[in-house]
Amino acid sequence: MDALFQPVANLKGIGTKRAEALEKLGIRTPYDLLYHVPRGYLDYSHPVPVAAAPTGEPCVIRVQIVHKLAPQFIRKGMTIFKAVATDGLNDVTVILYNNPYGFQALHTGSWYRMSGKLQGGLLRREISAPHVLADDSKELIYPSYPLTSGITMPILVRAVKQAIELMRQQPFDWMPEEMRLEHGLLPLTAALEQVHFPANPALMETARRRLAFDELLQLQLGMLIRRADNRRRSAYPMRQDTDLEPFYGALPFTMTAGQKHAVEEITADLCGDAPMNRLLQGDVGSGKTAVAAAACYFAARNGMQCALMAPTEILAVQHYHTMQQFLEPLGVSVGLLTGSVRAKERREIYEALADGSMTLVVGTHAIFQKEVSFARLGLVITDEQHRFGVAQRTLLADKGGCPHKLVMSATPIPRTLALMIYGDLDISVLKELPRGRLPVQTFAVTGKLRQRAYSFIRQQLEQGHQGYIVCPMIDDRDESELQAVSSYAESIQAGAFSAYRVGLLHGRMKPAEKDNVMTAFRNHELDLLVSTTVIEVGVDVPNATILLIENAERFGLSQLHQLRGRVGRGSAQSYCILMTDHVTEDCRTRMQIMSRTNDGFQIAEADLQLRGPGDFFGQRQHGLPPLQIADLSHDTQLLHEVQETAKKILEKDADLSAPEHGALRLEVLRLFRRSGENGRN
């Protein structure tokens, strides 16, 4: 088994240079190679006759090389290689570009299976740059792997075969046979062989199921152990008799029953001996900030300091103003700490936090810089936490020893995914909107109705309301049909909205510029804001009632829902117009879902089904170890099996310290190490 964990450079044909390239794929040992699973397969087992091959569609043909033509030197750096082949009835020309080695490997008289697209008519057919397999190959289902510069498919295939051979020589399996048979799973060695080089599609799926079971179980065990670890550690217990009535009485509105229930759950946690580790999940506009303010007030009355971290400066500034409004009249001091705060103000905030005279600091990642220290940090709140890495959240929590932690998210997460991502957290959900809010009416239209849409926006502006137009990019690009936000703003200011004040906001502006634009919009010094998705999260302007999203097909369902949440935040009826000329079946489905419901949880479930968990949070910023095999959108039943199994294992062995769980514990640690995870939230 030791050979599987030696440097991958030791494998034949790899060496130091290729090992460095493989490290970019996360491959350092032969064992890592075993888990670098194919992203797809080329199935050579069902070739079709040349005459029956569909034009322009992927297919496999079985042909014999008749003769090879002389290379054609088209220009510097371009050589075309051609060979004539036959299936016995019809000929086909095989074309390779700049591939002398592939051409040399084709031998006259030999039979091959070729995967690719055929072009041409009945009299002359050709196949360009096909994947080629010797006809007598034992493996007819061939893996297709993620690659990197310097690593070709044949190199990777040969390396994986060597890793499999090492596993055959010293087979092992962390899973007891009784458990394996109970769930109908393949032995580990067989599963790894079949996932790379399956004998048939059915065996490949059986192998994938075993490896997905392993991965989900290791993930679930890691999350549950971390949750138990969090519960064992000491915190800052607060007083149960802390009176919240002054806070409720000072609010300019009445909290919903759901908000009050969430506050009760949070304050109960704050009074416990173990640190709170709770997710406050609510749809856009459900009033999470007011709940967070109540938690801060509760902590402040107990002599604790609080930190609220937001992913963007715009959102941090907004939270700062909101917290000031809610808390400063009650004697709770609030400070703002972002990258654009001037040095003198920053030093004053550092001193106030260190000596305890400042109770709450709101900010971006600037909060967890090493210069920041707290006198008594008892509560850490992270907003839109999936936008922070786990290491960033830990840095902030470490400043308080072991403070209570509240995670807020306006990204509704399907229960299946939430069980994985937040397996170590208790969850509070806000489902009802504050009183007086009306659902946003949503319409999907094509560009043919653009002028009617503009006319409708003008009607809203004439009534004294404000609006947003969202574009998916910043710079003009040649050959692009996308609306570039800068030129778009200039165009509508000079044309359709010349009578109104149009502002521009995008991600490449300096923080101070963004803040100035948002302040002007919030103060109604601008009527219409043309923006990229920087307004996606949290921007709160109750007077904005109309949102137009250009190129709506460019956004996932959950992102569209987040953007839609920028309107409908006041008492007036609000509207969202989704504009797209890219009317594919998938696009039509998404637009129909958006038009049909305002329920973020329904939308999230649909988004997970349509896009899968890999894309659900964009760039995988949710802190989960990257799942390489399991698919949470389709492995729901398997996940239920895994959760029951994980509970049984931990009931007998709470920290996997028993000798029979040694290998399983190593697998759990290895999975979490892939994402820089360190065992704490």
From TrEMBL:
Organism from which the protein derives: Ruminococcus callidus ATCC 27760
NCBIfam families xrefs: PRK10917.1-3, PRK10917.2-2, recG
Residue ranges of every copy of the Helicase ATP-binding domain listed in the record: 269-430
Entries under InterPro entries matching the protein: ATP-dep_DNA_helicase_RecG (IPR004609), DEAD/DEAH_box_helicase_dom (IPR011545), Helicase_ATP-bd (IPR014001), Helicase_C-like (IPR001650), NA-bd_OB-fold (IPR012340), P-loop_NTPase (IPR027417), RecG/Mfd (IPR047112), RecG_dom3_C (IPR045562)
Its biological purpose: Plays a critical role in recombination and DNA repair. Helps process Holliday junction intermediates to mature products by catalyzing branch migration. Has replication fork regression activity, unwinds stalled or blocked replication forks to make a HJ that can be resolved. Has a DNA unwinding activity characteristic of a DNA helicase with 3'-5' polarity.
E.C. designation(s): 5.6.2.4
UniProt record similarity statement: Belongs to the helicase family. RecG subfamily.
Gene Ontology molecular function terms on file: 3'-5' DNA helicase activity; ATP binding; ATP hydrolysis activity; DNA binding
GO BP annotations, alphabetical order: DNA recombination; DNA repair
Record's protein name: ATP-dependent DNA helicase RecG
Keywords of this entry: ATP-binding, DNA damage, DNA recombination, DNA repair, DNA-binding, Helicase, Hydrolase, Isomerase, Nucleotide-binding
PANTHER family: ATP-DEPENDENT DNA HELICASE HOMOLOG RECG, CHLOROPLASTIC
